[in-house]
């Protein structure tokens, strides 16, 4: 498209004007959704070659979905580019998102009732799914096309850009209808940039609140002083909850409406516990206890990969296992404590373990050939296991 072709040429011009620039490679993703896509990728390759740039075509070869095609294509596009960057040691992906794209994104999120995070639009830089740079967020598509026209550079229009079945295209047409009212892409992009500035300040305040009130335990749960939580402004309470749910739950990003409901429940105090995004929150008299929802943990054993006298692996995206010793060549795996047969569980009382029951049920258990070897967080080693394995378990304690 015109935006990406303009990015390619302007990056080349930028490199020519600077004595020290990183190596640049042009990536074209062929989604295979149209017959002409392979030929169009070849055209881009010729343009890149003419500019002295390396070029690679990444092909989306998976089965194509019937619905939500653009969303699936976007996810596939970033996955393919991220994988290429990982394999080739690239530092960042630079994309050609324009002020028009930003305005369309804001309108789409406005239609969904998004909060400040959503209405701030796309960030100039982001870290997922790979470090991303978006230098054109204040520049309109019209300006980029005018630049290409002035240099005699052509581009390829995607027919799907006129297809009303896609939400972004519908928003693009709505935006053109708003322009006579003075609501154009540049003004919306300016508002998004200002909202993002406020968003960053609130994020900082939420991080400071978290650092001051969170007591995090290596057994994979956290405690929050309830009084301090209730005294915080509602927006900071919700942002703190979002961070805690991501850290102690299943690493899924919960919806804003769901976070608002949980925050209201904590304030009202009309029930003892709630779950959200694989996270369980227990409201006590003076504390909130936050940890993994045990019923959402997969019970199938997760194998630890062995190499010589060392085995390691990540379990439930929360704990990193490192096992050393002569026995690491054995079949080692990890399951949740709650998945053990009652007869196989060690006799641990709530009093002696000092852990909430739901936290204990979500603790990792090391198995050797399917038999329990140890429960590291409870200080338990099976009598028949011997002492030939040294087990180190680390919780991903994200501050």
Notes on the protein architecture:
This protein has 13 helices and 19 strands. The chain has 399 residues and is an alpha+beta fold. 28% of the residues are buried. The mean pLDDT is 90.
Quick summary:
Helix content is 41%, strand content 21%. The chain contains 13 helices and 19 strands.
The counted number of beta strands is 19
In terms of DSSP E residues, the strand content is 15-25%
Alpha-carbon distance between the two ends: 41 Å
DSSP helix count?
A: 13
Uncertain residue ranges: none
Describe this protein with a few key phrases:
21% strand; alpha+beta; 399 residues; single chain; five-stranded antiparallel sheet
Draw up the topology in text.
Layout: H1 2-17, E1 25-30, H2 37-50, E2 54-59, H3 69-88, E3 93-94, H4 99-111, H5 116-119, E4 125-126, E5 132-133, H6 141-151, H7 167-178, H8 185-213, E6 214-217, E7 221-225, H9 226-231, H10 234-248, H11 256-268, E8 273-276, E9 279-283, E10 287-292, E11 302-303, E12 305-307, E13 310-315, E14 319-324, E15 332-336, H12 350-353, H13 357-361, E16 364-368, E17 371-375, E18 380-381, E19 390-395
Parallel strand pairs: 1-2, 3-5
Antiparallel strand pairs: 4-5, 6-7, 7-10, 8-9, 9-10, 11-15, 12-13, 13-14, 14-19, 15-16, 16-17, 17-18
Helix pairs in contact: 1-6, 4-7, 4-8, 8-10, 10-11
């Amino acid at each position: 498209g015109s935006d990406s072709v303009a990015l390619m040429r302007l990056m080349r011009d930028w490199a020519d004007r600077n004595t020290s620039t990183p190596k640049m490679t042009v990536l074209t993703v062929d989604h295979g959704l149209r017959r002409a896509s392979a030929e169009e990728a070849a055209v881009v390759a010729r343009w890149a070659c003419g500019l002295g740039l390396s070029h690679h075509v990444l092909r989306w070869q998976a089965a194509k979905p019937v619905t939500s095609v653009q969303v699936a294509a976007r996810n596939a596009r970033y996955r393919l580019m991220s994988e290429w960057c990982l394999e080739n040691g690239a530092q960042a992906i630079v994309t050609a998102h324009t002020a028009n794209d930003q305005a369309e994104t804001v309108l789409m999120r406005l239609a969904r009732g998004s909060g400040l995070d959503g209405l701030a639009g796309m960030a100039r830089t982001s870290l997922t799914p790979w470090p991303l740079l978006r230098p054109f967020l204040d520049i309109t598509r019209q300006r980029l096309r005018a630049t290409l026209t002035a240099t005699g550079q052509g581009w390829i229009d995607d027919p799907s850009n006129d297809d009303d079945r896609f939400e972004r295209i519908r928003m693009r047409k709505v935006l053109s209808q708003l322009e006579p009212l003075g609501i154009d892409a540049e003004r919306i992009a300016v508002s998004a940039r200002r909202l993002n500035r406020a968003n960053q300040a609130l994020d900082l305040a939420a991080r400071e609140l978290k650092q001051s009130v969170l007591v995090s335990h290596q057994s994979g749960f956290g405690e929050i002083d309830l009084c301090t939580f209730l005294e915080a402004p509602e927006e900071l309470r919700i942002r703190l909850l979002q961070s805690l749910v991501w850290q102690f739950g299943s690493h899924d990003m919960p919806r804003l409406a769901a976070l608002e409901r949980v925050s209201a429940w904590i304030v009202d105090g009309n029930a003892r516990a709630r779950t959200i995004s694989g996270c369980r929150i227990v409201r006590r008299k003076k504390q909130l206890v936050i940890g993994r929802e045990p019923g959402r943990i997969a019970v199938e054993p997760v194998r630890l990969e062995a190499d010589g006298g060392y085995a390691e692996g990540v379990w439930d995206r929360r704990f990193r296992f490192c096992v050393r010793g002569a026995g690491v060549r054995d079949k080692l795996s990890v399951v949740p404590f709650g998945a053990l047969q009652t007869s196989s569980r060690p006799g641990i009382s709530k009093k002696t373990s000092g852990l909430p029951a739901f936290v204990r049920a979500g603790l990792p258990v090391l198995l050797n050939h399917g038999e329990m070897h140890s429960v590291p967080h409870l200080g338990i080693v099976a009598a028949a296991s011997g002492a030939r394995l040294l087990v180190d378990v680390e919780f991903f304690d994200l501050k």
